[in-house]
Design a protein that fits this description.
- It is a single chain.
- By secondary structure, the chain is of the alpha+beta class.
- The protein has a domain of about 100 residues.
- It has 25 helices and 27 strands.
- The strands form nine sheets. Strands 2, 3, 4, 5, 10, 18 and 19 form a seven-stranded mixed sheet that branches. Strands 12-11-23-22-21 form a five-stranded antiparallel sheet, with helices on both faces.
- α14 packs across α17 and α18 crosses α19.
- The longest helix is centred in the N-terminal third of the chain and has 36 residues.
- The chain starts with 8 loop residues before the first helix and ends with a helix.
- About 40% of the residues are buried.
């Protein structure tokens, strides 16, 4: 038979068996590989994966610490913490839901916390991202943090959310510490205390880069006042609760926990009773000024804002500090609304967020004169025996510079010139020293004893107060005049080309030609605290404190000490000397003695009739600063050896007329004065001065007041002289 022969049966069998062997080898090799890999995973790297698995099964829940207390010098709480139910939405978990589920969930939450759903949707958008509304409607905190959408939630609502977790995915309800304001004696002190807001993503990332574990995605940080200045001590250290969960995120039970450490307590130099009286009197002064007719404009004073400071001249401690208008610090708790924030910045409302004691910069008027007197008396040109004419006006060039209400007192010395606040006396001093310095030929580098006196007293630079955002003020000397002219000459030269004979256009033409010159008019304005020189109330208070204590310029302080939660002293905030007045003691004492006459028979005498000045020797200086296009600024500075008080009312009239009555009432309250009787034990601080020791914490964790200081030498003498 022809054709190809078929393979024999034995050959086909051998081929099939070979294939089977190959398959078996492949299976065995695959099994060996799998077993090797399994051995590697379980034996060689088993510990690593076991740890990672444990991490996936345990979720760390950050436990925020209780922020430290802020108390006054007697231990009275000014700021505390309380627990509040807060509802938050986890943006990461929310994104895992379908759009329809997200919408339904947010509508349900909005209804339960009584907020518009649009408000919650806006809150979940990160500030700065597309379509995000402006702060505080958007979320300005960390993107990794559940976003709080409602605080102060009713406990029943919070418990309902907790018990029905399956109905509220991505929603949390928990108690969190929030700030509380006990308001002892009705104290506000918002500008001293400050406020909190959530840490931003940038702050969170920076803290991580710095190794700072006290700032978490849920942290609230200080934004103003001592809350910001002492934030790192008040903040505390967060803890954590380890919560075991399954693969679906359901809670299985508790794991390892690390308790939080509460923040330290800040003891301040404030006294709540004094603060309360000062706040009340400042408000009374401003509201009273608004009912008083301005003789110049024929309308009532606007009295838009004001400030009052009580300072201990012996170490710079701030005993009280008030700013008006003010605001309720509770408005920041749980997040501030857009409407509320706009009101705090509103010019129509008087910009309540602005702290006038440290941030308002205004011409000081005649309260500047004592420092000018010391500067002049420290030169060879003048002495306590100098007599100059206090005429009704003083002519410089073609302009007559007048005394207040054109008063005249004849030939007087520096002491009487301070007491009656004679402008023309000081005009002569300023003009004469200007001539001696070279007059119009002087350069920006020319030394000026009056400018040096102002700088030595701390004007033109910050005081170093332990409050953020302090303004430096400005000394309008020759150097500043030149810089200002260079920066603004183009504007004024263009304005001067326009037709017009009003003050602004005439000034623009003159400024364009020789605005760089520190002329005779500038010198006479400077010496009485007018013109372009501006100061803050805090600068003025520290300057007068230096006169009161004999020449030491202290850095003002609110903070006194930091205590641990158990009461241990963590840090004493010691007073710091900023500088010393460079004038002879005889000059400082001369001015100090001169200012004692102001309440007796000077510009303050009409407000201190029947006051026991022989027992409580108050020194004083009034100031009425003129401001172009506005009503005058009222200034009043008073001091004793125990306290300096400075009160300012913007667009408020004269110093004594506006603030004299309130200033007197503050002194009466401080020294326990009733009529001619002086009872230091009945004062706001029994014994008049603050305690030298700190509050203590007892075994129950309650703060106890320190023993009161011994009665001051001045108050003791006054009491014995009753």
């Amino acid at each position: 038979m022809n054709g190809t022969a078929r393979p024999s049966g034995s050959h086909a069998f051998d081929l099939s068996r070979t294939r089977l062997v190959v398959i078996q080898v492949l299976v065995i090799a695959l099994m060996a590989t799998l077993l090797g890999r399994l051995w590697y995973l379980q034996v060689v790297t088993g510990d690593v994966y076991q740890a990672q698995a444990a991490d996936n099964a345990v979720r760390d829940v950050i436990v925020q610490p209780q922020r430290g207390l802020i108390v006054d010098a007697m231990g009275r709480p000014l700021v505390a913490s309380r627990q509040s139910w807060v509802v938050s939405v986890d943006r990461t978990l929310l994104d895992r839901l379908r759009n329809r589920q997200q919408d339904q969930l947010l509508r349900t939450v909005a209804g339960m916390v009584d907020k518009p759903v649009r408000t919650i949707e806006d809150r979940l958008l990160l500030c700065g991202t597309q379509d995000a509304p402006p702060p505080p409607r958007c979320w300005n905190g960390s993107p990794y943090q559940p976003v709080p959408v409602a605080s102060g939630v009713d406990e029943r609502v919070a418990v309902d959310i907790q018990e029905r977790r399956e109905d509220f995915p991505a929603v949390q309800a928990e108690q969190q510490p929030v700030r509380d304001y006990p308001e002892p004696f009705g104290v506000n002190a918002a500008h001293v205390l400050g406020y909190l807001s959530p840490a931003t993503a940038a702050e969170y990332d920076q803290a991580r880069a710095d190794g700072d574990r006290t700032v978490t995605a849920q942290s609230q940080v200080g934004r103003a006042g001592v809350e910001r200045q002492y934030d790192k001590w008040l903040r505390g250290v967060p803890g954590s609760d380890g919560i075991a969960v399954d693969s679906q995120g359901r809670v299985l039970g508790a794991d390892v926990s690390r308790p939080p450490r509460a923040g330290d307590t800040l003891v301040t130099s404030l006294d709540a009773r004094v603060q309360s009286v000062v706040e009340r009197e400042l408000k009374t002064t401003i509201l009273g000024a608004r009912q008083t007719v301005d003789k110049v404009t024929g309308r009532r004073y606007e009295a838009t804002s004001g400030s009052a400071i009580v300072l201990d001249p012996n170490d710079g401690s701030i005993v009280a500090m008030a700013s008006y208008p003010t605001y309720d610090p509770d408005v920041w708790v749980g997040g501030i609304s857009d409407t509320e924030l706009q009101l705090l910045y509103s010019k129509r409302a008087g910009e309540p967020l602005l702290s006038r004691p440290t941030q308002a910069q205004l011409a000081p008027g005649s309260t500047f004169k004592p420092f000018m007197a010391m500067g002049a008396l420290a030169t060879d040109s003048y002495s306590p025996t100098t007599r100059l004419d206090c005429s009704s006006s003083f002519t410089v060039g073609n302009r007559a510079y007048k005394n207040f209400e054109s008063g005249a007192y004849g030939s007087i010395g520096f002491d009487r010139a301070l007491q009656v606040s004679c402008n023309t006396f000081f005009y002569r001093v300023g003009y004469n020293l200007w001539l001696k310095a070279g007059g119009d030929d002087a350069t920006a580098e020319t030394k000026d004893p009056l400018v040096e006196a102002a700088q030595a007293a701390g004007f033109g630079s910050t005081t170093g107060v332990d409050l953020p955002g302090e303004a430096p003020g400005r000394i309008a000397d020759r150097r500043w005049q030149m810089q200002y002219w260079k920066q603004n000459k183009d504007y004024y030269c263009e304005l001067g080309k326009e037709p017009g004979s009003d003050f602004l256009h005439v000034y623009a033409r003159e400024f364009c030609i020789d605005g760089y010159e520190f002329g005779a008019g500038d010198s006479v304005n400077f010496v009485i605290g007018q013109g372009d020189t501006i100061v803050t109330p805090m600068q003025l208070a520290t300057g007068y404190a230096a006169i009161a204590n004999g020449g030491t310029l202290w850095e003002p302080r609110v903070g006194k000490a930091l205590l641990s939660p158990s009461g241990k002293v963590v840090r004493r905030i010691k007073p710091e000397v900023q500088d010393r007045l460079p004038f002879p003691d005889s000059v400082i004492n001369y001015v100090d003695t001169a200012l004692q006459g102001t309440p007796k028979d000077g510009t303050l005498a009409w407000k201190y009739g029947g006051f026991p000045l022989d027992k409580v020797a108050i020194r004083g200086k009034t100031g009425t600063a003129e401001v172009y296009g506005r009503q005058t600024t009222s200034w009043l500075a008073n001091y004793t050896e125990d306290y300096v008080i400075v009160m300012m009312v913007e667009q408020g009239g004269t110093g004594s007329g506006t603030s004299g009555d309130s200033m007197r009432r503050i002194w009466e309250a401080l020294y326990g004065i009733k009529g001619l009787q002086v009872r230091p034990d009945k004062g706001l601080i029994p014994g008049v001065t603050e305690p030298t020791k700190l509050p203590t914490v007892d075994a129950r964790g309650l703060i106890e007041s320190p023993p009161l200081a011994a009665t001051s030498a001045r108050a003791s003498a006054a009491q014995s002289a009753r």
